[in-house]
Amino acid sequence: MNIPQQSINIVVSLRSSCSIFMNIKGLKFIDLFASIGGFHQALTSFGAECVFASEWDKYASDTYEA
Fold it and tell me: Which pTM was predicted?
């Protein structure tokens, strides 16, 4: 596979600009309209803590809790 250098440069640039999110320990957040928990998963993977989550759809809620 031959990946153009410009594409590689874009990915490297995005990765380094996202490094500010790598240390958000101590951040507390609420997850409104939680759906199946993608936002929750992303933030907790960087050390944040969810203190409240809300979802009205029963099936999405079941998935979120799993």
Answer: 0.54
